[in-house]
Amino acid sequence: MTEVTKRPQQVYTLAVEVGRKPGDGLPEKSTGAALMCYASGIDEAEAVRETVAILKQADLAPLDVSGYGTLDERLAAGDEVDDEERALMARALAENSVVVAQMTPFFD
């Protein structure tokens, strides 16, 4: 019998661009928005899938997702990660969830 090693959950930083959709809750004259999210997953692909699914459930229209890696990957790349951001990442990991940390609407 082979032993299955469960891969640990990690938190990934994702930037998601969303378009407009009826009932999306975005400001009236905006053309869409950028969301900064922290999402848990065993890999970045799973974190992206979960994030897109949750945003669709929230009546948002995800168009594009850019991944910025895990905390360790970001630190290795020279990113500065403040305590507030680390706390949001810890929350996403503890809750095995997606945390939307920031929303920036787009206007023409």
List keywords for this structure.
single chain; 108 residues; alpha+beta; four-stranded antiparallel beta sheet; 31% helix; globular
Outline the structure in words.
- It is a single chain.
- With 108 residues, the chain is α+β, with helices and mostly antiparallel strands.
- It is 31% helix and 36% strand.
- It contains 3 helices and 4 strands; from the N terminus they run ββαβααβ.
- The protein has a 4-stranded antiparallel β-sheet with strand order 3-1-2-4.
- The longest helix is centred in the middle third of the chain and has 14 residues, at 44-57.
Low-confidence stretches: none
What is the radius of gyration?
15 Å
Instruction: Give the SSE order as H and E letters.
Output: EEHEHHE
Question: What is the number of E strands?
Answer: 4
Mean pLDDT: 94
Q: How are the strands of the largest sheet arranged? A: 3-1-2-4
Number of helices: 3
Structural class category: alpha+beta
Considering DSSP H and I runs of 4 or more, what fraction of the residues is helical? 25-40%
Short structural summary:
This protein has 108 residues and is of the alpha+beta class.
Write the layout of secondary structure elements.
Blueprint: E1 10-19, E2 32-41, H1 44-57, E3 61-70, H2 71-76, H3 83-95, E4 98-106
Antiparallel strand pairs: 1-2, 1-3, 2-4
